Amino acid sequence: MGIPGLTTRYTPARNDDIDRNLAKFLNWRLESPDDRDRLHVTFRLLNKLEPGVYQYGTRTVKVRVTYSDYTESKQLQVAEVGNIFVPIQGFITACEKRELDLVERRAMRRGETGKGELAL
What we know:
Layout (H helix, E strand, L loop, with lengths): L16 H15 L1 H13 E5 L2 E4 L2 E10 L4 E8 L5 E2 H23 L10
């Protein structure tokens, strides 16, 4: 059974290491039963502006890939412009609900969508 509002997996831009790692993270979440219900929100809030820079709801964020010697793996980190980088999972958990509410209210004020729909 599919996720309402989500018909595809995240497809990264070619030759963009950050976007490839972001796609890997998002598509992994798509397979995780714990995150599946909320993942469509992340997809709907995320819009790539340029390499390493995304719009997440109303926020412009930078995304980077770091390598952790401790876990011996790559990690995605996110920072709002001018702020420190934090792990992407924590950022999404902290911001997702508020950003969805802000974007939906803004769209409804403009009369662009019906209640519960989102045009990004």
